[in-house]
Amino acid sequence: MVLPLKQDSLVQRFSFDFPAKIRQQDNEEQIDYQDVIEFICWHPSITQGFIAAEQSLLGGHNLHPASKTHEGWDQQQAQIYSPDYAGEFVLHWFLVKAELLSGESAFANVAITIPYR
Question: Is residue 113 part of a domain?
């Protein structure tokens, strides 16, 4: 598979230039985003489960950009909440009226979006 890099990143938030291509011998065929995901997920070299993959992250990902820092946690909290120790905890979801929702960002152009109403 050929997936051109659009933007390199020191914090591992890379950007790719689609469409990707499958290259077989002298032939290239464009494939869409869904096919790229399926190709990666079903590739024989991918054998880790979700928990193993989370525990192996060193640099974090978009939702937890520095998950290994444990910043703000004491040792007991790190053992409970960090994937490093294979801990488990229950997540709770809350529904909040849009007019009661607020938030902050380091970027001035980021707005809170409400996907469902």
Answer: no
Rounded to two decimals, the pTM is: 0.39
Q: How many domains does the chain have?
A: 1
Q: Which stretch of DSSP H or E encloses residue 5?
A: strand 5-7
**What torsion do the CA atoms of 35, 49, 72, 104 make, to the nearest 10 degrees?**
20
Question: Is 31 inside a domain boundary?
Answer: yes
Taking residue 35's Cβ as centre, other Cβ atoms within 10 Å add up to 15
- The span from the CA of 9 to the CA of 85, in Å, is 28
CA angle 96, 112, 100 (to 5 degrees): 30
Q: Give tens-digit pLDDT for 73-100.
A: 888 888 887 777 877 778 788 888 877 7
